[in-house]
Design goal:
Layout (H helix, E strand, L loop, with lengths): L1 E5 L5 H14 L5 E5 L10 E4 L4 H7 L5 H10 L3 E5 L1 H6 E5 L9 E6 L9 E8 L6 E6 L3 E5 L4 E6 L2 E7 L2 E4 L10 H12 L5
Parallel strand pairs: 1-2, 1-3, 3-4, 4-12, 5-6
Antiparallel strand pairs: 6-9, 7-8, 7-10, 10-11, 11-12
Helix pairs in contact: 1-5
The structure holds glutamine.
Glutamine binds next to helix 4.
Length: 199
């Protein structure tokens, strides 16, 4: 069973470590691989799009037809977890400023939506994942401004959605890879498993 972490830019190493820890903790036979070329998507059950800088990611993705390959991956049932900049990539509409995105989650997301005054902060979230509240680190985080009825809210902060899911695509506006709490990564592995892409 292979799970990939997009390793073009950003916080991919911490995600790989969190996935591995979640797999060991749940006795799941998982191989975590760093994905730098579209060919690396072959055979993956799930893929993590890490945080970083979404414009930089988009620039780096111009070298290969990443959007086409990721759309095929998604259409064929591959699960995707996008965190922070990754959540921006997964949303249908991006503002501040507008930029291209994959649109697997029918949402509008505003980049740096908490403003410059609140660059980064850490807080406790209510999440629909067993184990109680989750500590979340927000770093120049985007903010969901609209969600369609198809999008399920799995976590919120002060009444705002910060962890959402549409089918096999999960997006969070915080950094779950930085706290040592790997429940979201374990949840993601469970989604991949339920998908039948566990091979
Ligand atoms: N502000 C970044 C962006 O717009 C996201 C920040 C992050 O991933 N920590 O892409």
């Amino acid at each position: 069973m292979k799970i990939g972490v997009l390793a073009l830019q950003g916080d991919f190493a911490a995600h790989a470590a969190a996935l591995q820890q979640a797999a060991w903790g749940n006795s799941m036979p998982v191989e975590v691989v760093e994905v730098r070329r579209t060919a690396g998507l072959a055979g993956l059950g799930g893929l993590v799009l890490p945080g970083g800088e979404s414009t930089t990611l988009l620039n780096l993705m111009e070298d290969e037809p990443w959007f086409d390959r990721l759309r095929e991956f998604h259409r064929s049932g591959g699960a995707i977890l996008g965190t922070c900049a990754g959540a921006i990539l997964l949303s249908r509409e991006v503002t501040n400023p507008d930029q291209p995105s994959l649109g697997f989650i029918d949402a509008t997301i505003e980049r740096n939506g908490f403003g410059r005054q609140v660059d980064s902060f850490e807080t406790e979230l209510r999440v629909d994942i067993p184990g109680g509240k989750m500590t979340a680190v927000f770093i120049r985080a985007p903010r969901f401004r609209r969600l369609s009825g198809e999008v399920e809210v799995l976590g919120s902060w002060q009444g705002e959605p910060v962890l959402v899911r549409e089918g096999n695509a999960i997006a969070c506006t915080f950094h779950p890879e930085l706290t040592g709490d790997v429940r979201l990564h374990a949840f993601f592995l469970g989604v991949v498993q339920d998908n039948g892409r566990w091979r």
